[in-house]
Amino acid sequence: MPATHHWNRFRVMKRLLILNSKGGCGKTTIATNLAGHYASSGTSTALLDYDPQGSSQRWLELRPEKCSNIHGVFAGKPTQGGVTRSFAFRVPGDTRRIVVDTPASMKRLEMMEMLRTASAVIVPVLPSAIDRHVTLDFLNELTTLCRQMAINLPIGIVANRVRINTRSFKMLKETLEDFNIPLVAFLRDSQNYVHAAETGCAIAELKQPTLKKDQQQWSILINWLETGQLPSPIPPTSKQMQHSMNLR
């Protein structure tokens, strides 16, 4: 399902859904860094944490005063005192980017509710055999659900904790070749993400020289979210190279 939407940058409100039924694939890492990137650019941003573990909420609590403000909503806990969910989970009226961090497993109706209000979906995946197969099953479920709901959402896959020259990453790219869902970005396996998580900051907000590669990878993801343009092709897999040679 290629992204064909062209959005006016930062002018309208967009709700960005970070979604995968597989736990530990980096949803919170992407959600917090995405929210931090937008906030640091001067865009009014909200971060909704639907995971009962509250990892994104804890990241917000660590956030230093020098960093741009992000409106946080811990949606993973029950509302109290007769307050409706819609009222409890409201965001400021000037919000332009809502980033939604979701739990590892959701009921079908909950997922449908989130998809109805989403502007785009990001599916994180780790380049391991278990994560590949679980995510493929989830992508089948997600695309079937979107088709049944008659919604055409931009859906992009983000490979997380990648070591680009490894067999596992090559296998991931080969596995995704049969899907009509683009691999829009990959994020390298870096201790910079550990440091960012521990300090309540995003990669975009840190200043170390070692962050240049990570910030470049994030600019590719942001560009896809804002323009719908796919990145330049990632170097071909061995399977693709062999196929090309066979055609000669």
Order of adjacent strands in the largest pleated sheet? 3-2-4-1-5-6-7
**Coarse shape:** globular
Count of alpha/pi helices: 9
> What is the percentage of strand-forming residues?
15-25%
Q: Tell me how many strands there are.
A: 7
Whole-number total of structural domains:
1
Distance between the termini: 30 Å
Fold-level CATH name: Rossmann fold
**CATH level 4 superfamily:** P-loop containing nucleotide triphosphate hydrolases
Uncertain segments of ≥5 residues (pLDDT<50)? 1-8, 236-248
Give average pLDDT, whole number. 86
- Output the CATH class name: Alpha Beta
Main beta-sheet annotation? 7 strands, parallel
* CATH architectural arrangement: 3-Layer(aba) Sandwich
Write down the Rg: 18 Å
Structure, described:
This protein is α/β, with parallel strands linked by helices and 248 residues long. It has a single domain (14-246), classed as 3-Layer(aba) Sandwich (Rossmann fold). It contains nine helices and seven strands; from the N terminus they run E-H-E-H-E-H-E-H-E-H-E-H-E-H-H-H. A seven-stranded parallel sheet has the order 3-2-4-1-5-6-7, with helices on both faces. The protein is globular. The model is unreliable at 1-8 and 236-248 (pLDDT under 50).
